[in-house]
């Protein structure tokens, strides 16, 4: 039987792909690399954004649609959507059922994201990539709750 493959936010494995050119390295997750079952992904880079890049947050429009805006007012929605689609395609290719994605990010966050005011205030919601994966019946965990997901 082939081993189950998981996607994981690349920044959690020490890859410097965050907006400010740093990582969010978690040693316990890095130790799982040896299993050969983790594929690191960064939706924002896959969507065509540079590193470093401007910080972005999700803003809900009055008609309920979502936009992803940078702090200086650049509309990055299409790049975020493209990245989410690419991650979903990859998940389908590898028959991924569970992922570990960085908490609170406008791409990778699950359950909580920043409120769109760039004031570090969290609200309920999912990043664009997490939302798309959840809509496709893929379980999304983050660096705080992955232990409950029985990975590896
Ligand atoms: S998009 Fe996801 S993987 Fe990329 S830096 Fe942000 S949180 Fe990490």
What would you say this structure looks like, in words?
The protein is an alpha/beta fold. The chain contains 4 helices and 8 strands. Strand 1, helix 1 and strand 2 form a beta-alpha-beta unit. Helix 3 crosses helix 4. The longest helix is centred in the middle third of the chain and has 17 residues. The protein is globular and about 50 Å long. The mean pLDDT is 97. The site of iron/sulfur cluster (SF4) has 12 residues, from helix 2. Iron/sulfur cluster binds next to helix 2.
Write the layout of secondary structure elements.
Blueprint: E1 6-9, H1 27-30, E2 38-41, H2 43-46, E3 56-60, E4 66-70, H3 77-93, E5 98-100, E6 112-114, E7 122-124, H4 128-135, E8 139-141
Parallel strand pairs: 1-2, 1-5, 5-8
Antiparallel strand pairs: 3-4, 6-7
Helix pairs in contact: 3-4
The structure holds iron/sulfur cluster (SF4).
| Mean of pLDDT | 97
Overall morphology = globular
Q: If strands are numbered along the chain, what order do they take across the biggest sheet?
A: 2-1-5-8
Can you tell me the CATH architecture of the domain at 6-54 and 78-110 and 126-149? Answer: 3-Layer(aba) Sandwich
Classified by CATH, the class of the domain at 6-54 and 78-110 and 126-149 is Alpha Beta
Give a count of the beta strands, DSSP E runs of length 2 or more: 8
% residues in beta strands: 15-25%
- C-alpha-based Rg, rounded: 15 Å
Low-confidence parts:
none
Tally the helices: 4
Structural class assignment: alpha/beta
Percent helix, as a range, is 10-25%
Give the SSE order as H and E letters: EHEHEEHEEEHE
Describe the biggest sheet? 4 strands, parallel
User: How far apart, in Å, are the first and last alpha carbons?
Assistant: 14 Å
The CATH topology of the domain at 6-54 and 78-110 and 126-149 corresponds to: Rossmann fold
- Distinct ligand kinds: iron/sulfur cluster
């Amino acid at each position: 039987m082939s081993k189950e493959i998981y996607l994981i936010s690349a920044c959690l494995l020490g890859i410097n792909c965050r907006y400010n050119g740093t990582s969010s390295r978690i040693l316990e997750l890095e130790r799982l690399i040896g299993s050969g079952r983790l594929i690191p992904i960064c939706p924002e880079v896959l969507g065509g954004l540079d590193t470093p890049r401007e910080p972005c947050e999700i803003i809900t429009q009055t008609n309920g649609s979502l936009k992803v805006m940078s702090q200086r007012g650049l509309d990055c929605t299409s790049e975020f959507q493209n990245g989410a689609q690419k991650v979903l395609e990859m998940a389908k290719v590898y028959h991924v059922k569970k992922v570990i994605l960085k908490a609170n990010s406008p791409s990778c966050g699950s359950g909580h994201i920043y409120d769109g005011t760039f004031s570090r205030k969290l609200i309920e919601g999912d990043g664009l990539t997490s939302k798309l994966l959840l809509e496709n019946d893929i379980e999304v965990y983050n660096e705080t709750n992955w232990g409950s997901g029985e990975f590896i």
